[in-house]
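User: Could you go from structure to sequence for me? I need the amino acid at each position, not a summary. Structure tokens:
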């Protein structure tokens, strides 16, 4: 079970919870409204339950994770509830895509056009 605490001096909120290993963790939210902090707390509770039971995420929690900013996402990842976001360089992505597709089902001229695009 997670809880939201509020620092009255600076107005910042944080979520505190016990992880599956029993350790106490904190996710700092910053200056956010109480309702937004409660929504985040509910989603964090879903993440904890999903981790504890090794079950898939609820669709609403998955959508919420897609919409939050990268700072909050990285804080949740640092708490160990999710994996961090991956960033891929376009050149690496294209070369990986071309190598996988050229072996699978692409015609030689199509692969040649892709390599031109990759080079440019």
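Assistant: Here is the amino acid at each position, in order:
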């Amino acid at each position: 079970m997670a809880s939201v605490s509020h620092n009255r001096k600076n107005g910042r909120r944080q979520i505190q919870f016990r992880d599956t290993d029993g350790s106490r963790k904190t996710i700092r939210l910053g200056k956010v409204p109480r309702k937004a902090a409660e929504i985040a707390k509910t989603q964090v509770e879903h993440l904890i339950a999903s981790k504890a039971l090794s079950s898939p995420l609820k669709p609403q929690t998955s959508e919420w994770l897609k919409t939050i900013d990268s700072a909050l996402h990285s804080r949740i990842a640092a708490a160990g509830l999710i994996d961090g976001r991956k960033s891929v360089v376009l050149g690496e992505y294209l070369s990986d895509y071309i190598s996988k597709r050229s072996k699978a089902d692409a015609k030689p001229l199509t692969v040649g056009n892709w390599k031109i695009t990759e080079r440019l």
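One structural detail worth keeping in mind: The helical segments are 34-53, 59-67, 70-78, 90-104, 108-119.
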